[in-house]
Structures are given as structure tokens and as C-alpha cells.
Amino acid sequence: MKIKGIITAMVTPFDENQEINSKATKQLINKLISSGVDGIFILGTNGEFHMLSEDEKVAFAKIVIDEVDKRVPVYVGTGGNSTCEVIALSKKMEAIGADALSVITPYFLVPTQEEVIIHYKSVAESVKIPIILYNIPKNTGMNLEVSTVAELAKVKNINGIKDSSGKLENIKNYIEATKDQDFCVLSGSDSLILKSLQLGATGAIAATSNLLTELDVSIYKNFLTGDMDTAEKAQKDLEVLRTTLKLGTVPSILKKSVELSGIPVGPARLPVTEPNPEVVEKIKEMLNYYGISCNSNQ
């Protein structure tokens, strides 16, 4: 499976009772696909995987998989701290039709590189579908070392890594170490999409594409056609949103931005709270910058 292009790290829509909002989920999916994304990535950091129960994760994934209906691949986050629980959830996601799984490194108690190799190999053996490693050291407390990724890339169904370290050196080294394997390196840092592609990454798993879908897609498409000036301009243009996202706890600002743009994805789950009125005004200014009309009912 060639993992490539702009894959949206989709938010999980909730209603006013903080329950999964099926209608808004379908609305967002269809907006993303019609805007040209190459895949949907659910239950990641911006998808609040850490806030959902296992039953909720399976129910949400089923809604997404059914609505996408094979139009693009669906990548499902099944990572956690317990290898046993990750295997159980991974099997369930495979059974309901996930195209691939994303597995974050265990967190809270930081495993050694040897332990994380055992963890990933055990998960990979339990399913037949592709697995993407997910490296996000600032959230998990550990960085997947190059030698670890090189070792895991030898496993038949470990086919890629999403690197959200924010370090180009990581991306570069992962690409170099796995060049002889059937393995894809993807940027998980939206500020580095173009630079990662230029180094040999095959795409990006981008949260900003929940809102600025066409802009993210244009970075990739213009890169493919060799129009680096246009790709660079699109990359730089993401910064206004990225600066605004820093005004609150993930994913509160992104969800409010999408909501104000017209898709009622609801708030983040508590303890993450809604942005205050001053921040909402800054979000509206950001939307105005991009020419996105603000839904005043939200």
C-alpha cells in the first residue's frame, strides 16, 4: 500500500452533550473528499483518541468507514499504552474495514527502544492490514530512533511512519534508513509539508486540512508538478492558521475554526474548554484572512 498525498488528521465531531455527532462527521468527510484529500486519518491527536472509550472509537470508525465507502483510504488510530489493548482494538478496526492503522508510541511510562520494537512487532503480527508508526515526542516523552524505525520497516505490514517531531532531521534520517524497504515517511508537522516532500517524504498527515483543505492539497499537487513557487506560497500561507492554533489547548481552536466555517463539529471534550470571546474574535480574523465566511450562528 502506497501511503501518499494529503491525508486529513480529522477532528472528531461532538454534539452539545459531547457525544459523537454522526451527521457532522459525514458532512466533514464529504467536504474533505470533495476538496481533494488523499485519505482520512481518524482517532489521532486532533481526533481526541485519548478522550474516547474503546466502544466509542469503534462506533466512530464505523461511521467514517461506511461514509467514506472506499473513496479514499481510512487510517485509524489504535495506539495506547498496553500492547494487549492495542492488539484488541486493532483487530476490531481491521474487522470493520479500516484500510490501515496508525499506532502511536506508548506514553506516560516511556518504554525503551527495545520494548517499543516488541510492542510494534506484536501488534503487526495480530493484523494483516498496514500499520503506520506515529512519532510525536513532545506528547509521548519518547522519540523513535532511526535504528528502531529501520528495524520495524523490515516487518511486512509496517509500511510507514507519521513523524510529528517537528524536526526535519528526523524525517531525513527515517527516509535514508528505510529507502530499501516498502516504507513511506509522512510529515505530521504541517509547517514542514513542502520541505519533507523535497527530502523524499510521500505526503503529510495534516490537521490544518480540516479547515484549509484546498491550501494543503495545493502544496502537494504543485510539488508534484514542479511548481515550487506556488507550493512555497501555499506552505507559507498556512502560518496564519498555525499561529492561531497556539491560542488554546489542542484541538479547541481547530474545532472552533471548523465550526465557525459552517460544519458543526462541536467543542473538544472536557477538560479542554471552548475558546474565550477574545480568542474567538482572533479566530474570526483568521477566517477572514482566508476569505472563509463566518457562520454567525455558531
UniProtKB/TrEMBL annotation:
GO terms for molecular function: 4-hydroxy-tetrahydrodipicolinate synthase activity. The keyword Lyase applies. It is found in: Cytoplasm. It catalyses: L-aspartate 4-semialdehyde + pyruvate = (2S,4S)-4-hydroxy-2,3,4,5-tetrahydrodipicolinate + H2O + H(+). The active site is at Y134 (proton donor/acceptor), K162 (schiff-base intermediate with substrate). Homotetramer; dimer of dimers. This is 4-hydroxy-tetrahydrodipicolinate synthase.
